[in-house]
Amino acid sequence: MPFSPLAQLRGLVLLLPWTAYLLGADVALSLLLPLKLLFPTLVFNASSLIANSVWAWVQRIFVTWNHASIIVSSNQRLPKGESAIVVANHVSWTDFYLIQEVAQRSGMLGRCRWFAKNSLRWVPFLGWGLWAMGMPLVSRNWTRDERELEKVFRGVVQKKWPVSKAPASPPPNTSPAPSGAATTTAPS
Q: Where is the composition biased (Low complexity) (predicted)?
């Protein structure tokens, strides 16, 4: 079903400013790359600040402007600034918003690093930023991805970088997760 002209205009009004901002974020991340060898922690922290602003804007589009409802129920909360590796049975795009909501509530939104498909590096605007920010881009082939994963976790383990990581999708041959306590609802 095609979108009405009004819906298309609304989409442009929401996404064009964000896309321009994303381009600026990509430029800022690119300017940080030469410093990465000498000051890796400084670059990680600076790229996390940039990431926080980009992901917060995405959350605002989804939750505020699109009136999505994100319900998180748990008998415990992640402490502020607590590192976490989140394993989710990724089923749809709304999963990202749920994980980002939890990360935002714990002050870790800018520290989110997704295990993303290697092919995403070719997506205009987004791909370069993912790579420059230090997102683990994987092919789902262990022999090809081993070095990338070692590099990603080296900062977390050796340099004690705070991080919130989530896989991009479930491993092959997994069954859907049973209905749980956390849900996202996109407006219809």
A: 176-188
